[in-house]
From TrEMBL, chains A, B:
Residue ranges annotated for the FAD-binding PCMH-type domain, each copy included: 90-270
Keyword Flavoprotein: yes
SUPFAM superfamilies documented for this protein: FAD-binding/transporter-associated domain-like, FAD-linked oxidases, C-terminal domain
Similarity section: Belongs to the FAD-binding oxidoreductase/transferase type 4 family.
Protein name: FAD-binding oxidoreductase
Length: 543, 543
């Protein structure tokens, strides 16, 4: 069973050991664990569905108005979502949930919902960390259109390396269906376990190995989108110069243009060899120089992930195995990587000869920056736990600490100032509440032009909802403002939703916002899909 | 001086030798060379400009109503353009040409033109082969906005590998300005000599080495677009998930959304080594299998260009050097590449070690299909003449033959049927006029998912304009219909313009067309930029 107020399966428990706890206490003070609300208490707070019995009987697809279904469909994984669920401060929830079990049911469902004056919000795996799912407060009832049953592999063209899926398929299910035929997609965001294909497309998702497999923009080859009043079919083509590329209008549309029901994706053969190799470099500056050189040499690595000194330290502290880590650090110090060292995880994927060639080409670029390889042991551990790290949020909560992450991308000259500004903004925001903030950063997606910058903020939850919410809002606002001030995008891989809505205009400009709004109005003149996403005026208010 | 009714500089003369002439006569019959109209005769046919003296004096940028300026700005390089110019059957031309010499002049010029009720068509290097520039026939005077003076390098960020240019810069000038700083772009469409950066963006251009450097979609990092009533600034970002990517709305907008005045592009260091290697394979089937395997192995080659048997034969026949070619063919026949052999030109670009590694990885895939390498001699010749081949159109015209090319892209299972259907459609269309057609094809851009398919059609011009125009229209319609029937895009690299307008709907669908139209109306409610491009109802009529 999936947790209703945290990440992942209830049967999976992440823990932090005494050393890690001591490290956090030293950094932040003792954790303050408030009493979580029970599911029953949270459900008791839900308003009744505003759908009438006639509507429930007239819908072309069965609708659920069960409180738990409505609760689960209305929340993602933003820290704001967590706070509302953990404290039982529910706020707006949808009025009903429809879970079609055939893609053909989506068209009549939308037509019916339009006639009924509902707002429809498509929901895949409910892993949004930016408030995509939060229903708008307003007069019109809200129907969540759950894609969870639409998960079939529809066709596979081995010659073109294309697979067509129903868009509700979740990451592990998608990969399992492909692996059964000897294929893979290779799209691994950290939310992989629960994230859906349609959600990846609607939010311009990026996976950990996008350097090889491509961001979802490169993987999405075409598909079908049910618009409020018509159907958009985008054929698969390897490339086209026939005017605007409509794939790109669907990518990042965040449920506002239509419901993605089917998607063709570009698949790959399972690679012959894959090595994840951990390198250490003596300093942030040299680490950044190394990844920049690697990216600009275009060697074809599948992953480059550079932790700054604080994240490196935190990773080693939270890993457990204090004895082994101490030996590792002694070895690294002897080789020039001591205080201030940074961890770089590299992925080499492909044919065996290709992997060897890449490693040979990468090595001198790393050595030139004082890099020390520690081989594949740490890499194998990282790969084995790549989707487990996110469970740490549960363990930290239970120790009294909240975790939020903020991410952006910018050109190279802005990367280090961006990292510093984001961490500083987070610490300052919490200082305004008399609290400390443990902030650390990694570069998760490195490009020839620049890099993503991904910062994590750990702080004490606070004694009550109002206090915790205020801490989170201060942090989110301060870091978002730092991001746009330093010239970054408000999101490299999470999307806009409600949490980032006020900062969209900084990137798009007034003209860009007007064009986006014009396109949405053309597709959806009646506002059937008007969840508030992609609308700069829609910031999430305290419930 | 640039030719007014053909390709390129007047001082450059391509020729075909007796052997080539004999080959064409055998294939098509003796060429029929009509009398070309003189420039003076063509200019005499131009209607007077409809702009008033008051308008000419009131414009914020000097306007030219000189007949030759108006003529040159109103034509691209489509065979339809050629026929109209060569026969002096001019048809619609613009009323005036503005050539701003500062990007800041574009905004007031557009504002003024809007107030005057003009139609504005931006023009870069006038190399369109699909009728982008043909002015619409209508009541409103047409102003061509020539970007030719806007050619400066504005800034260069070595760290992010970004260069910002005024968008009117032409290919050779752009490369020269970058080379002076040790950089390059690497975007080499065959029209490189005259094509402009803004034109590449507006038409989704693809260069010969796009497999390494990327299509223009990947090279265009941001910029400034003057919309009819406002300015769109797109910041450079390595990647973004903040809703729709507005770069993609500008790409392929064909002058209908706004005027691209500045563009930042992703540049590269000049590579250490570049080899173009000619391989021969025994048959089309084995050649296609080889390029598909190479593309799907993702080795990072910069170019894969596979000629079918007829194009291979034609290339060898038109190359001159009959003696050397005969020796080459004897050698190839001994190695298993005889009748039906196909020529594959491969580009290996990068660091010296990287190039060696790529070649070692590519070789077994080529050998597996019976490939025979002939080394770098033919490749060096190809590279040295890569922008000279297009001059052959002049020589063929002077021998009495017209040349048109049509191109598409499709998924792998459709590639061979597409090639056969396109060639068959071309031959059938000319047979309807009692003429033969020499049709041949190459794959110029090969992707893991599929390939572009680029066919050339050579046929006798015909004795007069009406006859020649009818042959061209039959060919164009038949091949376009074959392309959409076989599931290809109406253009992989040339765009839509007027010549492909009727076939846009096959790819975009009614819903897609409605969205495109809605976006254009949002950007340009008054139709200031309504050249007729991207409008499916706009096919070019006989003048």
């Amino acid at each position: 069973m999936r947790r209703w107020n945290g990440w992942g399966e209830e049967s999976i428990h992440a823990t932090i050991d005494e050393g890690a706890r001591g490290f956090l206490e030293e950094a932040l003070g003792s954790g303050t664990l408030p009493q979580d609300a029970s599911l029953a208490a949270a459900l008791a707070r839900l308003p009744a569905s505003r759908l009438s019995a006639a509507q429930l009987h007239g819908a072309p697809v069965p609708l659920s108005i069960e409180a738990e279904d409505r609760l689960r469909a209305s929340f993602g994984q933003s820290l704001g979502d967590w706070l509302r669920l953990r404290f039982g401060q529910i706020g707006p929830v949808c009025d009903a949930v429809a879970s079609p079990d055939a893609v053909e049911q989506v068209r009549p469902l939308l037509d019916w919902a339009r006639q009924q004056g509902l707002v429809v919000i498509p929901v895949g795996g409910a892993t949004s960390v930016v408030g995509h799912l939060t229903p708008p407060a307003g007069e019109r009832p809200v129907l969540m259109l759950s894609m969870q049953r639409l998960r079939r592999l529809l066709s596979l063209d081995a010659s073109s390396q294309l697979a067509r899926f129903e868009a509700g398929v979740l990451g592990p299910d998608l990969e399992a269906q492909l692996r059964a035929e000897g294929w893979m997609l290779g799209h691994y965001p950290q939310s992989f376990e629960y994230a859906s294909l349609g959600g990846w497309i609607a939010t311009r998702s990026s996976g950990q190995q996008s350097a090889r497999y491509g961001r979802i923009e490169a993987l999405f080859a075409g598909g079908r989108v049910e618009l409020p009043t018509s159907t958009l079919d985008i054929p698969t083509l390897p490339a086209t110069a026939a005017g605007p590329d409509l794939r790109e209008w669907v990518l990042g549309s965040e449920g506002r243009l239509g419901v993605i029901t089917e998607a063709s994706v570009r698949i790959s053969r399972v690679p012959e060899r894959e090595d994840f190799v951990a390198w250490f470099l003596p300093s942030w500056e040299r680490g950044q120089a190394a990844v920049q050189a690697l990216a600009q040499a275009r060697l074809g690595l599948s992953m480059m992930r550079l932790a700054n000194a604080t994240e490196t330290l935190t990773t080693l502290k939270l890993a457990g195995h204090a004895g082994a880590i101490a030996w590792l650090e002694r070895y690294l110090a002897l080789r020039g990587c001591a205080e201030g060292k940074v961890l770089l995880m590299l992925g080499f994927t492909g044919g065996a000869a290709q992997v060897r060639a890449m490693q040979a080409l990468a090595k001198p670029l790393l050595r030139a920056q004082g890099g020390v390889s520690t081989g594949t042991l740490l890499g194998r551990k990282w790969a084995a736990k790549r989707f487990r790290g996110v469970y740490l949020r549960n363990a930290l909560w239970e120790a009294g600490y909240a975790v939020d992450t903020m991410e952006t991308a910018c050109d190279w000259p802005r990367v280090t100032p961006m990292m510093q500004a984001m961490e500083h903004a987070g610490r300052s925001a919490l200082a305004g509440h008399g609290e400390r903030c443990h902030a650390y950063t990694h570069l998760s997606h490195v490009y020839p032009q620049g890099s993503s910058v991904y910062s994590t903020f750990v702080f004490r939850i606070g004694p009550d909802f109002d206090g915790a919410w205020a801490r989170w809002q201060s942090l989110k606002a301060a870091v978002s403002e730092a991001i746009v001030r330093e010239g970054g995008t408000i999101s490299h891989q999470h999307g806009v939703g409600k949490d980032h809505a006020p900062y969209l205009g900084a990137e798009k400009g007034a003209t860009g916002l007007r064009l986006i709004d014009g396109l949405i109005r053309e597709a959806d003149p009646g506002g059937l899909l008007d969840s508030g996403n992609l609308r700069p005026s829609t910031a999430r208010a305290q419930p």
